[in-house]
Target: HNH endonuclease
Amino acid sequence: MARKKRDPYRDLDAADEPAEVAVPCWLCGRPTGKTIIWHHPVPKSRGGRDVVPMHPICQQTLIANFTNAELQRHAMDVEALLANPDVRKFVDWVANKEPDFTATTAKKKR
Model:
């Protein structure tokens, strides 16, 4: 009869594992859900390297309301982005939605 190999990880209890911590969205502040977008506040085409966690719907709203040049000017300043009435209206509307909420967003203004 062959010996069974002992799995060293078998005895780990699920309670010992760290719980997943939902990081807050950079724009709206709600906890992120299953899908997290790592957004460049300063676009990569403009030399941006830093990334921040966002909901997909929040990123779509930023892209629809700002050009890359405007995003570069605002950089990491969330308050400047929230000064835009359309973005503020969106953040107030999405505040009570679940983390994985999705909806159609406005098209880019040209």
